[in-house]
Prior knowledge:
36% of the residues lie in helices and 17% in strands. By secondary structure, the protein is of the alpha+beta class.
Amino acid sequence: MKTTIVKPQPVTVYQSEVLPQVSTENEMLAKSIEWADAHPVAWKIVTGNRSKAYGKSSIDYLGYQRGDAPSQILDRIHHFKCYVDGYSGRGTDFWQWRAQFTLEHYNDRGFRGSFFHQFDGQYNRGCCTLDYTPHTLESVIDRFIAWCNVGYKFPTAAVKIDGKVVRTYRLEGV
Length: 174
């Protein structure tokens, strides 16, 4: 048998000042903690359920990222920061706008999230969870339809929010 004595190595731990239970030894994730501490509303977004786009139960996250464990919160804050910074990997500024919108409007009166559908007259086509307020709803719908028009190329007969038609369009030739 061989015995080796290992000298203890110093370990740097990065810990949130806003959510002290969240910490990491990973320097890349430390940047996400630092960013979230500078934007405390981000912690509220990823630990609450008001935001359908980025709340803790968002469909944007993988199953292992949902929950209350510090590692899950850290994964979500990192994910959210990547979207706010435009590093989503999805290739359009729509996703960055969506994250920045949530960050900017989370504390606004009437803030909520819902599931948006583009309806072509026969089938639901483009879909996405989006956050909005009563005052921003029309502009959020406009952004959603612009995104659908680029990505899906189907005509839009209506926009549905949580299954309810909220806007209709007159289709050409109908």
